Amino acid sequence: MLQALSSRRHFKELSEEEILALAISSEEDDARIYATYAQELRDNYPASAKAFDEMAAEENEHRRMLIEAFKSRFGDVIPLIRREHVAGYYERRPVWLVKNLGLERLREEARKMEQDAQRFYLAAAQRTTDAATRKLLGDLAEAEGKHEEAAAEMIEGLEVDEGAIEKGAAHRQFILTWVQPGLAGLMDGSVSTLAPIFATAFATQDPWTTFQVGLAASVGAGISMGFTEAAHDDGVISGRGSPVKRGFASGVMTLLGGLGHALPYLITDFWTATTIAFIVVFFELWAIAWIQKKYMETPFSRAIFQVVLGGSLVLGAGILIGGG
């Protein structure tokens, strides 16, 4: 995993040739995704399916224009570079994860796709020194912006409320910048510290020692998660926002997630402290599942299963190791 991450390059390290090649592969992927959406909607929502067909056709036209620009500057051989090869580049959900979603969710996916593409073309245009290429990339950014508006108008006769669009964009940005990294931190802090804290508790039955281990594990995990989140994505292309804000959210929530079940061991009676720590763990796992349901649209039953199962396994491992 670490080797795979280290082999990815940041957008700022790409040459103009590689940026154009990345744009070509991205347009091809997006065209295929829109075509799949159209196929899914054709029977029940023919107007929306037609809109997705048109968007797919435009993405293919963008790809053709980019290929012509590439050939005129760099020749016929286009290097293979895809979005997964670039650190911090926006991602696309696998089609099988969205095929059975409703029309509203597909529209929202389309709007996000176009917003991501527009952001990429604006950044790419700033990186090129060729006037014709810069104009092409700027024109494509404008076209992707119009696609975003079209995704919001996909029902025939729909009036677009600009205030609602701005509010929705702000909400998405809040989730990307604060909720996602904060949730990742809370999950890491709450679950990963269970084993060392409860192993120490049952091995020593000393509340103060357990608290020290829990504090050290929580602080160390918070610093690690914060720096990792800030370093792996500068937010320029992914649109996830300031790396400092994301690192802060991830680091603080990791710290709090670990401290939640470490603080009860400030109580001098071991079994009282342990009982309270167990109760705190229950509420931590419940809070994680609730956040997943509210902000990440994860079905509550699945969120509960994933979080409780993972937490229980780590907790059980800690107790077995400490009590062995």
Which fold name fills CATH's third level, the topology of the largest domain?
Answer: Ferritin
Query: Beta-strand level of the residues, as a percent range?
Result: under 5%
CATH architecture of the largest domain: Up-down Bundle
Order of helices and strands: HEHHEHHHHHHHHH
Largest sheet, spatial ordering of strands: 1-2
Report low-confidence residues grouped into runs of 5 or more: 1-5, 155-160
Rg, nearest Å: 24 Å
Share of helix, binned: over 70%
The domain count comes to 2
Distance between the termini: 32 Å
| Form type | elongated
Q: Whole-number average pLDDT?
A: 84
Quickly name the level 1 CATH class of the largest domain.
Mainly Alpha
The assigned structural class equals mainly alpha
Highlighted features:
2 strands; 2 domains; disordered N terminus; 324 residues; 76% helix; 12 helices; mainly alpha; elongated; Ferritin; two-stranded parallel ribbon
Question: What features would you describe in this structure?
Answer:
With 324 residues, the chain is an all-alpha fold. The protein has two domains: 159 residues, Up-down Bundle (Ferritin), CATH 1.20.1260; 155 residues, no CATH class. 76% of the residues lie in helices and 1% in strands. A two-stranded parallel ribbon has the order 1-2. α2 packs antiparallel against α5, α5 runs antiparallel to α6 and α9 packs antiparallel against α10. 35% of the residues are buried. The N terminus is likely disordered.
